[in-house]
Design goal:
With 400 residues, the chain is of the alpha+beta class. The chain has three domains: 125 residues, Orthogonal Bundle (Butyryl-Coa Dehydrogenase, subunit A, domain 1), CATH 1.10.540.10; 110 residues, Butyryl-CoA Dehydrogenase, subunit A, domain 2; 150 residues, Butyryl-CoA Dehydrogenase, subunit A, domain 3 (Up-down Bundle). It has eleven helices and nine strands. A hairpin with an 8-residue loop joins strand 6 and strand 7.
């Protein structure tokens, strides 16, 4: 990604980060182990490795063990892109430390930050972000898991599913609908939500089911049966949990696009290596116009994705309090483009591209989930269109 780092989006510190990260990755073996590996153990080991190397410090603020005064989205994107290039699971391990601790980093009290963030940065504690439910994925306001105040605690009932790091996390930032006597806000008539830090030792909190996917990583359904959580583990305003969720996703959604770029760059590299050495009908594969057309489309998709992702990250880092539109565009385009790039790489490699364990076959499985989590492509389109239509309506109402 050296060429991208030369653009004005980045400071010299970002360029140094990219260079040192590439050197570090070159000194470590991230090759995926054979099928049947203990994914939980490997994920724990990766979190520990990333923590010991200091990379997880970029996932929390400096005051609480991090690298920068506040989360720097460009740095998060650089880390995810480079890690995804070599290992989807290494990218996952890094990303979930940031996303899982993100609500605390951005909205938590000083006490919560002191309790959890330094351990996240060192790799001693594994974080998780628990928001999705069986009937409330992209429509997070439709969640049915509830929490009600009872003395000095909140009591949670319900379940969460598709929870990354489910079963291995040391804490889960869990989002619930408030279910007090006045469940709906008297001011708006709308339901109110709360974010709470749940620890696995909290009575009534259980891992109900582990979930296996085509690109294995720790994933589970959590259940809460009168789970009692101390009131001092509320993240942010007790009635503004939705703001905590959306504000966190605003920061980390761009980084999903960065991971997709890493996958796409690796697919292009594999395709170029193969096409440059494969002869067919007496000609090198790269000499065919059809091959050159595929390569041109792949390279263009990668560059366009990079511009959208790092534009979004730059805006957020330079004072953009909300980058909902920019982040949605970046996430949508980069993940869809990466799917196209990887599919073309599989096609160019032919039979080798579908051999289990080949880097391109692995990428083909890994990219699929990125088009779904943190908001599906279809939901991103709704978000983008909503922002565009609101801006259009505001412009029409403006005087003159």
């Amino acid at each position: 990604m050296t060429e991208i780092l030369e653009l004005p989006f980045f400071s010299e510190a970002h360029r140094e980060l990219g260079a040192s990260l590439e050197r570090w990755i070159g000194d470590h073996d991230f090759v995926r182990e054979p099928a049947g590996e203990d994914v939980d153990a490997k994920c724990r080991a990766l979190v520990k490795l990333l923590g010991e190397a200091g990379w997880l410090r970029f996932a929390v603020p400096a005051e609480f063990g991090g690298q920068d005064d506040k989360l720097d989205v460009r740095s998060l994107c650089i880390l995810r892109e480079n890690l995804a290039y070599v290992s989807g699971l290494a990218d996952f391990a890094f990303a979930m430390q940031g996303l899982g601790a993100g609500p605390i980093s951005l909205f938590g009290s000083s006490d919560l930050k002191r309790k959890y963030l330094a351990r996240v940065a060192s790799g001693e504690a594994i974080a998780a972000f628990a928001i999705s439910e069986a009937e409330a994925g992209s429509d997070i306001a439709g969640m049915s898991t509830t929490a009600h105040r009872d003395g000095n605690s909140y009591v949670i009932n319900g379940s969460k599913t598709w929870i990354s790091n489910g079963g291995i996390a040391d804490f889960y930032v869990t989002f619930c609908k408030l279910a007090n006597a006045r469940q709906d806000s008297p001011a708006t008539g709308k339901a109110e939500f709360i974010a709470l830090v749940v620890e696995p030792s909290d009575k009534g909190s259980n891992v109900a089911e582990r979930i296996e996917t085509i690109a294995p990583h720790p994933l589970a359904t959590l259940s809460f049966d009168a789970c009692r959580v101390p009131a001092d583990r509320v993240v942010g305003d007790p009635s503004k949990g939705l703001r905590v969720a959306l504000g966190t996703l605003d920061v980390f959604r761009s980084t999903v696009g960065a991971a997709a770029i890493g996958f796409a760059r690796r697919a292009l590299a594999e395709a170029l290596e193969f096409a440059s050495s494969r002869r067919i009908f007496g000609e090198m594969l790269t000499e065919f116009q059809m091959t050159q057309g595929q390569i041109a489309d792949m390279a263009t998709d990668i560059d366009a994705s990079s511009l959208l992702v790092y534009r979004s990250a730059w805006v957020r880092d330079n004072g953009g309090e909300r980058v909902t539109r920019e982040a949605a565009m970046a996430k949508m385009y980069a993940t869809e483009a990466a799917q196209r790039v990887i599919d073309r790489a599989v096609q160019l490699l032919g039979g080798r591209g579908v051999v289990s364990g080949h880097p391109v076959e692995r990428l083909y499985r890994e990219i699929r989930s990125l088009r779904i989590y943190e908001g599906t492509t279809e939901v991103q389109k709704l978000v983008i269109a909503g922002q565009v239509l609101r801006n259009f309506a505001d412009a029409r109402r403006a005087p003159g």
